[in-house]
Amino acid sequence: MSSSVPPPDDESRQYPYWRRNRQVLPVANLICGLGFSLCWPFLPLMVRDLGVRENLETWVGNMLLAFYLVSFFVNPLWGSISDYYGRKPMVLRAMLGMGFAMMVVPLAPTPLWFAALLMLMAIFNGFTPAGVALLVANTPPSRIGSTVSIAQTGGLVGQVLGPVAGAALAAMVDRQHWLFWISGGLMLSGGLLVLLFVREVKQLAPGRWRPHWLGHLRDLLALPRIGPLIFLAFLFSLMWHGSVTNISVFILQLLEAQGAADVSAEAFWVGAAAMAAALSMLVATPLWGRALDRIGPARVLVYCGFAAAITHVPLLFLETPLQLVFARVAFGLGSAGMQAALVYLIRLESPKGMDARALSYATAFQSFGMGMAPFLAGLIGPAFGFRAYFALITVLMVAGLTLWLRVNRKDEG
C-alpha cells in the first residue's frame, strides 16, 4: 500500500500548492456556504413577501427551475474553459460573480423581476464544484479523498451557520429580501481570499477552446460508468440541495396543519431543518472522507446512496416539524460521503485532460436536479401532496443505485 504513495519530495515537486490550497479553500467555502445558505432556505418567505399568497410552492418551483436550468447550460461551458485556461479563474468567476449578482437581487420590485435576477445570478453559479476541480487537479492522488472532504466540510460549516444567522435576521428585518445583501458581501469576501492565497499548477488541454456542449457530453457518456455516475449526481441533488426549499414549504404546511403558522415559528423551524441536515453532514463528512481512502469510493457511494433513500422514508409518515428535523439529521449522517465519492469516481473514470469537463457536466446535471426538485414538488404537491414527491425521489435513488451496481457487475464480469 505504501509503495503507491509518492515520496514527500515528489509530492512537493508535482503538487507544490496542495497543502496551502487545502487550508485556504475550506475557509473560502465556509464563507461562501454561509453566504449562500443564509438566504436560500428563506426564499419561499421572500417570494411570499413580494405578494405571492396562492400556490407558493408552484411559484418557488418555477423560479428555481429557471435558476438551475441556466446553471445546467452554462456549467459545462465553464468547465471546458477551465480545462483550457485554468481552474482558479473559474473559482473566482463563481464566488465574485455570484457575490455581485446577489447584491442586485434585493432591488426586485415584483416576483417576475426576482426570478429574472435569480437567473442572472445562475450564470455564475458553482463555487463549490469549481473549487473541487481545482483541488482534484492540484492534489496528490493518494490525498484526494481526505482533501475533498475537508473542502466540503468547510462548505458544510457555512451551511450550518447560515440558516441560524438567517433565522435571526429574518425575524429582525421587514423585507427578508435584504438577506441577499449580506450573502453577497460574504461571497465577495470568499472570492477575495481565493484571489490572494490560492495557487495552481495549470494543466491545460492542447489547442484552442471552442464551445462543444453536446460533443463533449457524448464523448463522456460513451464511457460505461460515467452515465450512471452523472445520474446519481442528479439524484443526490434532488434529495439534498434541491429539496432545501421543498423542506421549507413542507414545514410551512405542517405548521399550518397544527395551527401554529406565526412568522417566528416559521423562521425557527425552517432554520432548524436546514441546520439539522447541514450539521449532521458536517459531523459525518470527515469520517466518510477517511472511509474513501480506506475502502474506496465505489463502496462509499453505495452505502451513502442507500442511506439517503432509507432516511427519506420517514418523510412519508411524520406529522410534526420536530420529527422532520430528526429525519434530516439521519439523512445528513448517512449520505454525507456521497458527493465526495461521486467526485472521486468521476475523476478516476474521466479521460486525462477532461476531468474538469466531466465534473462540470456532473455539476450541470446536479443543477438540473436542484431545479427539478422544486419544480416537481410544485407539480406534484398541489395534486397529491408533498409526501408523493418524497416517495418518487426515494424510488429514483434506489433505481439509480441498482443501475450503478449492474454496470459495475457487468464490467467486472
Number of strands: 0
The largest sheet, given as strand count, sense and whether it forms a barrel, is: none
Q: What is the approximate shape?
A: globular
Question: Helices and strands, in N-to-C order?
Answer: HHHHHHHHHHHHHHHHHH
The N- to C-terminal Cα distance equals 25 Å
Low-confidence stretches: 1-5
Strand percentage: under 5%
Task: Name the structural class.
Answer: mainly alpha
Q: Roughly how much helix do the residues carry, as a percent range? A: over 70%
Instruction: Indicate the mean pLDDT.
Output: 82
**Alpha plus pi helix count:** 18
Radius of gyration: 20 Å
Highlighted features:
413 residues, mainly alpha, 18 helices, globular
How is the secondary structure organized here?
Blueprint (H helix, E strand, L loop, with lengths): L7 H7 L3 H22 L3 H7 L6 H30 L2 H17 L6 H12 L4 H11 L6 H27 L8 H19 L15 H9 L4 H14 L4 H15 L4 H33 L1 H14 L10 H15 L2 H12 L5 H30 L1 H27 L1
Helix pairs in contact: 2-7, 2-8, 2-9, 3-4, 4-6, 4-17, 5-6, 5-7, 5-9, 7-8, 7-17, 8-13, 8-16, 11-16, 11-17, 11-18, 12-13, 13-14, 13-15, 14-15, 14-16, 14-18, 16-17, 17-18
What do you see in this structure?
This protein has 413 residues and is mainly α. It has 18 helices and no strands. It has helices spanning 8-14, 18-39, 43-49, 56-85, 88-104, 111-122, 127-137, 144-170, 179-197, 213-221, 226-239, 244-258, 263-295, 297-310, 321-335, 338-349, 355-384, 386-412. Helix 13 packs parallel to helix 15 (321-335) and helix 14 (297-310) packs antiparallel against helix 18 (386-412). The chain is globular and about 65 Å long. The model is unreliable at 1-5 (pLDDT under 50).
